[in-house]
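The passage that follows is intended for readers who have already worked through the single-chain material. We present the inputs for a multi-component assembly, then the predicted structure in tokenized form, and finally a short commentary. You are encouraged to pause after the input and sketch how you expect the pieces to fit together before reading on.
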Amino acid sequence: MKQKIINLQLATHVGALIPFAWMLWDFFTHNYGPDPIREFTLRTGKTALVLLLLSLACTPINTIFKFRQALRLRRPLGLYSFMYASLHFAIFIGVDYFFNFALIQDALLEKRYAVVGLTTGLILLSLAITSTQGWQRRLKKNWKKLHKLAYAAGILAVIHYIWLVKQGVTQPWYFAAVLILLLALRVAPIKKWAGSRLKGV
Amino acid sequence: MNKIKSSEITPEHLYLSRRDFLKSMGIVSASAAILAACGMAPESTPEALAAAASDAQPTLPPSSSATDELGDPLNSFEDITNYNNYYEFTTDKERVADLANGYPTSPWEVQVGGLVNNPKTFSIDDLRKFEIEERIYRLRCVEAWSMVIPWMGFPLSKLLAEVQPKAEAKYVRFETIYDPEGMPGFKANPWYQWPYVEGLRIDEAMHDLTILSTGLYGKDLLPQSGAPVRLVVPWKYGFKSIKSIVKIDLVTEMPTSLWMAAAPNEYGFYANVNPTVDHPRWSQASERRIGEFGRSETLMFNGYEAEVAHLYAGMDLTANF
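Having made your guess, compare it with the prediction:
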């Protein structure tokens, strides 16, 4: 049993780092197409979103499948999501806009998709800082309340993506569908229904 | 357009863009790259020659200059033909080239009609009988990236002169081929009002900068670039430069373009490049030149202000975005 838990944790760390290794590989082998900044901005952003959604999936997986080990993966998945979100932001500021603060102000603070993205990043930052057991002790009951913001981060991240693309570009809507499913599974009647369906099988 | 003396010509494959600098990191000394980036005869330094040779594509066709009239280097043939917005194939810019590969563009006919005295159907061979010239233009996409492209083509005004627009013709309406069987994007993106339609006011259409293009870098257009014939209007966002044209009509009413129908609050009829009028969701003040790092400021009318500003004298460009 113990070994199983360790394996699962290990798989999570390896799995979460594979996209990063892949990006480094593509960077150093110049496999990034004509617009590398866009390429790596999108890849870091999408990976952050996927990991955030996986982190949000842990609780429903436990309630439906009674798979308690999943709960232990929320923190690493959330932290890796924050890591990719940080890379995403760093590319935006340091490579795309090259620290041109006049342009950054225009692009970041005056455009709703960017404001939403920045808000998502700040939420992830505050959750990452308070993710330690020390902060868990210090914040007591409030810790759980604070970390409910992970849902808000998921919603804002999807909105950030939807507002970025042109009308009719479908990919962000797949993420939206997964997010809505994950949120729906937390609504008590749906949770109960899903749980009973699976027990019946 | 400023003519550049032949002595200043640098073949495209010798030009060291900043991305090539990245590519050759560790191979070329930084000094050679800096020389090249400053436009200081890169072919004269052995390091640059070595770098160019390692990147050389012997089949690369010629262009008359290595830069546009502002001194911005041309984008490579590879970048231009592998980063395309062509939703009839796919919304993924980097997959268009693959999906469009081998798309039949011959035979091809362009019907020119509507309010004209001399309606006429042009075959692609008819179009190639116009005197083809090179036009090095900046292309600024509404998504805030840009390229510099050596188009081959001829002024649209020459074609319009052949069909003789009537006095009541106020606008020109263009239509892209509608081919749901041959192009996968129609079925994948059924919510757009196909076919792709674009329009110009007749004075915009008659402007000398407005061309019908049949090629780039001295070669015939590839399908992903809008073969066999497309519009190029360099002072407007790229989506105005409609691809793979099958129909041109002279009309009295302002045509509704596909993007105007899809999002009327975001895409207007004029779509002039304008750093002071933002897209509702993102800034248009700056752009990313493909192949470079960082951003450059977007120029009014994409740098063609002197040539075209008079077309919009007295117009509110915020309202007529």
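Commentary: Chain A has one domain: 2-200. Chain A touches chain B at residues 30, 33-38, 95-98, 100, 103, 106-107, 110-114, 163-164, 166-170 (CB under 8 Å). How closely did your sketch match?
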